[in-house]
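Assemble and predict.
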Amino acid sequence: MADKALSFSLADFFFNDSPDVLTPPSDFQSWIEHPKIQSAMGLFGQQLLCAPRAGTEVLSSLDGKRHKVINMTSYNYLGLSTHPEVVQAAKEALDVYGLGASGAPLLSGTFDLHVEFARRLAEFKQKEDCLLFSSGLGGNVGAIQGLLRKGDMFVLDEKCHKSLIDGGTLSGAKMLFFSHNDPVSLEAMLEKCKGKRVLVAFEGVYSMDGDLVRLPEILKVCAHYKAATYIDEAHSTLMFGPNGRGVAEHFGLEHDIGVSFGTLSKSFGGVGGFVCSNARITAYLKGYSSPWNFSCAPSPPVVAGMMKALEVATRDSSLRDLLWKNVAYLKKGLRDLKLNLGQSESQVIPIIIGSSGEKLIQFAYDIQRRGLFLQPVDFPAVPADSRRFRISVSTQFTNEQMDTALNIIEDVIAKGLRA
Amino acid sequence: MTKEAVIEVIKKNIAANSDDIDAATIDPQKSMKDYGANSLDMIEVVSTSMRELKIKVPRSELTDINNIDDLAVKFLEYVNKGNG
């Protein structure tokens, strides 16, 4: 084990044979203590010492010191987490409402702010109603666990987020995965679901690859089989579509989708999730979605900040325009370096470096040493043959910051891959 | 241990993980996906089989496996060298 530590990953220790539940597997302990794994793990969980702006500071695990870095990892896509109007709205709400909601939504946790924000989100997403969740993961888990039961079928794109899979597991429904973005594979899975209640889930923008759902083709298959549909627009809300409503709006197919989910931690710059659908199903979900009715309602000042974020992002297209300008600039620079960006069509840009975990970690340290905070994504989060870096483009990037980052990426990754 | 014996272990665990599959009807030239297994089911089958065979094969070495027979070959390699 010690000699081949880097061959192993977190995928290898899920099952624990230790007789004591409170003791991790013995081989996990020797793996995690291996110097190479310790070194790799040091990259993760590094502390940010100020706001997740394009220019931020981290307490680096390289030397334990404070360093200024260009931040291309945080998904503060529209820069709203630090937008002056957003911060001001949160401050004002903090004075009025205090820090926490101090209650579950059904008892005492529903404030006028929650009702108004949910109303605005439903209107924005062109659905009848909306449920707010304290976490994005909780929103997906809660919606799926609330909608499906044992005996139902849950059909997902194989690249769907863990929160959807966990929701499916909790629901007791049988899960079938279709090949990524492949309507033929989806059709084959739906053939197996005949006679059963079926929900098909897909994402607007896939989080590790940055590609878009092939929505017209996917929805055509779903319609043929009369399968209910669920879109996760975590990485697309406020960015895609003529009005920023997401990838469903981008394709002009919003009204053909049953449930629209979004997170509030990415483009909104806050934290939480929301589920929009018809009012009958949201009323039903309130009774059966545990992360909604057994969790404290979202923090009021955060809700106030996000409500302002929605207003700022949708009052005109300026933030979206700036984001796409930065995406185009950065993608051109990366393509000029002949890097493999996969099929990215969005502000999520992978730099796929291949199968070497050692190179990935070495590059990660080297770019950070040069002042770029760009975290690696290793197996099993992505396939073992396509380990990568994942750039989250932000409106806050200046051309100067992007040029500096491109130089670092060229020196470390592009040249390193050719070596 | 023979490859056939390893295949029997895998087949048994596929059947144990599914309500509607008889181990005797499983063709090793097919993939678990062909028998309706999703990726979570496959993790379960691979893990329980490795436990039974007392081996530990890194998941990263299993990504190119296309069918049950290939999986058995990989497992046998580790059985023969006395674990991972």
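Residues 326 and 398 of chain A are 8 Å apart (CA to CA).
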